[in-house]
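Worked example 2:
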Amino acid sequence: MCSRPSILGSQRGTAAIEFALVLPMLAMLLLGIVGYGDRIFTAQALQQAANDGARAAIGGLDRAERGTLAIAATRTSLTRTGMLDASLATVAIDDDDATFLVRLSYDASARPLMTAGLVPMPGRTIVRTAAIRLESP
């Protein structure tokens, strides 16, 4: 009599089944890492652009010139990142002759990883602020 392996005792195909069960979780984890990495990159680039705008404002002699210098420097910094669209950014300036504030708001809804919907992401608008003191203490 020839013996055949029992179907219940066979281990063939178990790796494929285990992989099929684990793959969705691994894919979500990977997409989450990449998506949040993109969000952190965008936020850091925006913070740097706001800082550059605030630093550039120091050279201005009056409110109008400080505002012009800050907006130009912010737009230049955003363009130089190579990955952010400067037209999606809104720059707000607050100058009370003692403190100069640059508030940068960016609509990240056009970023593909933000809109994929596979992983829950924070809000689509990223806001960063930079301030400098204009008068000496």
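The chain has a mean pLDDT of 87. The two ends are 100 Å apart (CA to CA).
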